[in-house]
Design a protein that fits this description.
This protein has helices at about 45-55, 65-70, 95-100, 110-125, 125-135, 155-165, 170-200, 205-210, 215-230, 240-245, 250-260, and strands at about 15, 35, 60, 80-85, 145. The protein has about 260 residues and is an alpha/beta fold.
Length: about 260
């Protein structure tokens, strides 16, 4: 557990610094430059002070319209850019999988279902994920924080793309994805188990949607290797580089990302 990377907040459970990971060539991801989080709508005044003290000036929100309307983000005075890059996380319009469970329309979600959902997001919103990487590559936007609602799915995909683009090894990328379980998912599952029980739904049947299963992200990144590895500039690169370049990322931005975020 990377306790030193966790930003301890009262109003958000899954906020952390992506810096500190070892990357290729003996370098490390710069600390204090990239942050990932869950929703910001319940931040306290102390939380705002904490995030402001870190100099974070760019906030990127992956949430779509209904989520934004329901949970308006609270921002600190130092934010100079609040960028919307909506990535839908639903399988049925604006109704999320969790909402469908509560409505009785969905009674099980497997890891395969989650991998399929991730690949659908990656396929549909490739230009937006590439745009996120371009924003992160621009030193004028740093430090930056990106977030969604739970901070594990859309933010998990974005983190994996960024870390792999920076040359962090695959197992470490998967470790980062799974940290959401310790910071948020275990508690969320504990809270929801009695509610689902009242609906006659076994928590194990829907655990995949409430957690960050390692196998899900592993399958997604392996699929990107298969689809896009041939587009990468270097034969040793993973499919993530090819995916980003294939969805509009300027190669110069990829070089700048590494120049600004690797030490």
């Amino acid at each position: 557990m990377r306790r030193d990377a966790v930003v301890v907040l009262e109003g958000a459970r899954n906020c952390r610094d992506l810096g500190g990971y070892p990357a290729a060539g003996g370098r490390h991801v710069r600390t204090g430059a990239l942050y990932r989080s869950d929703r910001l709508s319940t931040l306290t005044t102390d939380d705002l002070d904490e995030l402001g003290s870190r100099g974070i000036r760019t906030v990127v929100d992956f949430r779509a319209g209904p989520e934004v309307e329901r949970d308006r983000s609270r921002l600190w005075p130092g934010v100079t850019s609040h960028i919307s890059l909506p990535v839908g996380d639903t399988v049925d319009g604006d109704i999320s999988m969790v909402d469908q469970i509560f409505e009785g329309r969905l009674r099980s979600v497997s890891e395969d279902d989650m991998a399929e959902l991730y690949l659908k997001m990656i396929g549909t919103y490739g230009e937006r994920f590439a745009q996120l990487v371009a924003i992160a590559a621009d030193v004028d936007h740093l430090p930056m924080l990106f977030h969604c609602t739970a901070g594990k799915d859309r933010s998990g995909i974005a983190s994996a793309l960024l870390l792999e683009a920076l040359g962090v090894d695959r197992e470490t990328v998967l470790d980062d994805y799974c940290l959401s379980n310790e910071l948020r998912s275990h508690q969320r599952i504990k809270e929801l188990t009695p509610e689902f029980a009242r609906l006659g739904i076994a928590i194990d049947d829907v655990r995949a949607i409430l957690s960050a299963p390692r196998g899900v992200m592993a399958a997604v990144l392996t699929e990107l290797d298969h689809r896009f590895g041939r587009l990468s500039k270097a034969s040793t690169a993973t499919g993530v580089e090819g995916y980003l370049l294939g969805h509009g990322l300027d190669p110069a931005a990829l070089d700048m990302l590494r120049a600004n975020l690797l030490i």
